[in-house]
Amino acid sequence: MIKVFLIVSSSGKIRIRRFYDEVEFARQQQIEQKLIVLTSKLSPNSCNFFKDLDGIYDKKCKIVMRFFGTLYFIAVIDEDESELGVLDLIQNIVDLMDKIFDNACELDVLYHPDKMNALIDEIIVAGIVVETNIMDIQEALKQQETQIKNK
Amino acid sequence: MFHLSQMDQIFLKSLADVVRTSRTTSQYDKLTFTTQTIADIKNELQSRQESVRYQALLKLFFLAMEGNNIRWAEFQIINLMGSGDFQLKLGAQLAAHLVIDNQSQGLIMVTNVFIKEFKSSHIECSSTLSCLGTIANKDLSDSLLSHVLKLTTNTKPLIRKKAIAVLSKIFTINPLNIPGNLEMVIQQLQKETNISVLACGISLFCSIMKVAPKLYPLFLSIVYDQISKQKSNWLLIKLVRISNKLISLEPRFQGKLIEHYTRLLNQTNSKSLQYELIYSIMRHFKNHSQLYESAGDILKQFLNHQDPNLRCLGLECLTHISTSVGLMEFQEQILESFKKSDYFSKLQILQLFKDFTNQNNFQTVIEFFLKYSDMESNDKIIESLIFIITKDKFINVDDPEKLLLVYIPIIAQKIDSIDNAIRFKELLFELLTRVPGLKVYSDQLCNQILQTYATQSDSLQGPTLNIVKRHTQLKYSLNHREIIFKSLIMIVGESVKLLKLEALTNIIKFLEQLNILNCYESSLSDIDSLLFKIYIQIIKSDPENQIIPQMEQLIKNIYTKLHNISIVKISFFYESLIQIKSRDQLQQLYNLFEEDLPPINLEAQKLIKPPEGLDINKSFQIDISEIEKIKNTNSDYIEQKQLIQQQQQIEQNQGEQQDQNSEIQIKVENEEELKPLNNKIDQNANKIFIINRDEELPPGINQDDINKFKEEE
Asked: How far apart are CA B531 and CA B559, in angstroms?
């Protein structure tokens, strides 16, 4: 299960925030701050996942991080989720963003929070990855757009 | 789609406007800007224009990402969820997780809204299920359970998979909902062909195993069924993961999986599936040598792989080789990979060695990590090394002498954080308590560590007091250098009786350096008490007064440099001088204490009234002539006392000499008898330091003594 999913800019601003377990607002901010600090340790040759030894969320969980352009994609996962699977998932999200926004960048995430959240809701529901096929997800999003236009 | 009227376009601030204004607003005006924006949004959310309300919703997203609490908008968002317009409804459902939590009162209103949406088109139903998955609480789950269960039989796989995902949340929140309902879901999954739906089903089983593990027999067959026929890597990964948990609950399941694991291991090229398989095999299939060996070969490939992620996963697998003998095979590879690993992989390797270091590889491990520590991971390396040394009461340490004289000084030099300095201090104290014989080396240790502090110019720069923010208060905290300095001073102070004169004089000469006294201002009282202990020891061990004058001069130099001399310490100092030294020697130090004592500060009298008849403005000292009279009578008394003491000592010495002479005679007689036996004993036996691992026993007390005492009782 995915416990937390964040998209953070390289300047430390949160662009997308999803907590899939019940966490208090104050604690959410604490967790976000500590995860943002960890992004500074990520380098092109470093490993993309590591154990949450400091107990930022939970010592039994792992933190998966990936950097694309100016955005950090951060996921906190428990022992039921595959680390390489989540890395693939992040790659899929980025590919979908490219298809929806035509060469996506940070500003697209900033100015279209509704589309970004809709995209993530098609992939992760209640912390569980429900779909990884890009075509199926795109199809579902297109159907939503059609429904909106046909109002 | 929303089209804004011309008037709206003029006055309405879009999300882009708000973002632009936020970026150009200074920090001081941020609060005003945020307050104004929130006021605008509150107005806009009540507008009749759907376009205006939608813009307000988008701005709410932005405010939430900026860190503002937007829970005040809960009612408005719930209201929007019941809107007739799909875009507005969808937007509200996507924003729901930002405003609604477990305790929200408004969730009751959502129930009917959701029930209505579940009966609508599959697109609306799908977005509603996603929203429910985020905001569900106990009451909402109980009221909507039956509706969600119906949706698991929907014709669209999109609805079925989301319904199963939501069910996992419902069952986790309230496990009482599981019995009766789970069987229905399993029956449907047995007929299911869509991979996404099956994957959600496996995730559902994983969630159930956390809250009700005893229900595992219900889904054992479906998991086995899918492993034997499934070809999708994504689903197989989930199946292998859940199989790990099932094997630990039902060991017989392991036998059934051997054939399928062997097939999958040979066929698959997917690294993620390979990793899951070798992880499972390393953990549960140690008795099956062929499978274990093939997994071991793939594990070696992972450890040598160029991709740091795969190397990291390989290290993860190694944590499940339970014996350190098994780890020794891979030790060289792991240490080699440490040199080129990133920060996170290094942490993982350190964790591995924390668990698996033993006496055999202790030296190799310590020397390697001390050699290859870098700035980024230094802190964690030192923490891990201290853990390895102190683990299970120094169980890994077979040569405490080498540890103290070789490794500990190097570790001390590399420490650069307060937490590690405190751990280092505790390590030193524990080691010297458990091996009291090592105290003889305390001066050597002190010199080795403190000499580097004295010569490294950067370690003597800057204050050793840090201002640290604890919660909202600023507090002073010693930095790592001072913590180590204080602990070394204390250890030397405790070991003063065991040290030679030369060692003690070297310590005093070291402390006399002005830069040391200026740098470690917070430790001046510790230096003070150490000097006192050293001085007393020197007096006892130098009866011929050869070194004492030189030492006194050094100590006097230090005291003149120290700014805060404690009066109590000086009085003790003076008392011991009177007892031990002659009058001439006392005269030399008279000048130190020549000054008048200062009068009582008037401020001190505010709360306590002085006794009646006492004039606080009068000086303490009465008449100098009076003092001289008292002195003379005292000095006569002191002289007489000394004469008496000298006579007593002479008599004592005579008595002792007689005893010694008789002893020597007896010894000579015995030695002639013991000569043939003594020749067999090795006169130059090596020193052996044994670590006392008894729990909470002070040194010098044996467990045997305690047992004897208990038996007697």
From this structure: 10
Q: Which two tokens stand for residue B317?
A: 């697998």
Residue B357 has pLDDT above 50, yes or no: yes
- Residue among B119, B174, B104 at smallest CA distance from B142: B174
**What is the pLDDT of chain B when averaged over all its residues?**
78
Contact between B71 and A117 using a beta-carbon 8 Å cutoff:
no
pLDDT for res B240? 93
Distance CA B62, CA B47 (A): 20
CB atoms within 10 A of CB B668: 9
Structure tokens at B257: 């999986």
Q: What Rg, from alpha-carbon coordinates, does chain A have?
A: 15
pLDDT at B521: 67
DSSP 8-state assignment for residue B479 = -
Q: What is the pLDDT of residues B524-565, one digit of tens each?
A: 778 778 887 887 787 777 767 677 777 777 777 777 666 544
Which ranges constitute the DSSP H helices of B361-467?
A: 362-371, 378-390, 400-402, 408-414, 418-434, 442-455
Q: Torsions phi, psi of B124, nearest 5?
A: -70, -40
C-beta atoms of B376 and A29 within 8 A: no
Whether residue B268 lies within 8 A of chain A, CB to CB, comes out as no
Q: How far apart are CA A50 and CA A72, in angstroms?
A: 15
Count of residues for chain B?
713
Distance CA B189, CA B203 (A): 12
Domain ranges of chain A: 2-150
Look at residue B359 and tell me whether its pLDDT is greater than 60. Answer: yes
Beta-bridge partners for A65:
A74
Q: What would the pLDDT profile of B263-287 be if each residue is shown by its tens digit?
A: 999 888 899 999 999 999 988 888 8
Check: CB of residue B328 under 8 Å from CB of residue A98: no
B57 CB within 8 Å of a chain A CB: yes
User: What is the model's pLDDT at position B677?
Assistant: 44
What is residue B393's DSSP assignment? T
ipTM: 0.95
**What is the Cα–Cα distance from B200 to B134, expressed in whole angstroms?**
16
8 Å CB contact of A122 and B308: no
Q: Quick check: A84 and B272 in contact, CB under 8 A?
A: yes
Indicate yes or no: CB of B65 within 8 angstroms of CB of A25: no
Distance CA B635, CA B629 (A): 10
Per-residue pLDDT for B3 more than 80? no
Task: Return the CATH fold of A2-150.
Answer: Beta-Lactamase (3.30.450)
Burial B143-161 (b: 16+ CB within 10 A, else e): bbbebbbebbebeebbbbb
The predicted model gives B376-397 an average pLDDT of 88
Helix (H, G, I), strand (E, B) or coil at B583: helix
The Cα diameter of chain A in Å comes to 50
Tell me the pairing of strands A71-77 and A2-9. antiparallel
Separation CA B509–CA B440 (nearest Å): 19
pTM over 0.90: no
Q: How do beta strands A49-51 and A14-19 pair?
A: unpaired
Q: Is B64 on the interface with A (CB under 8 A)?
A: yes
CA–CA separation, B605 vs B87, rounded Å? 79
Cα–Cα distance, B548 to B472 (Å, whole number): 52
Residues B358/B396, Cβ–Cβ less than 8 Å: yes
Token output for B696:
């909470």
Structure tokens at B683: 């006169």
Across B420-434, average pLDDT: 89
- Condensed to tens digits (0 to 9), the pLDDT of residues B309-352 reads 898 888 888 876 656 566 677 788 788 888 878 787 888 888 88
Amino acid identity of B154? N
The tokens describing B521, both together, are 């201002």
The closest CB to that of B15, out of A20, A88, A111, belongs to A111
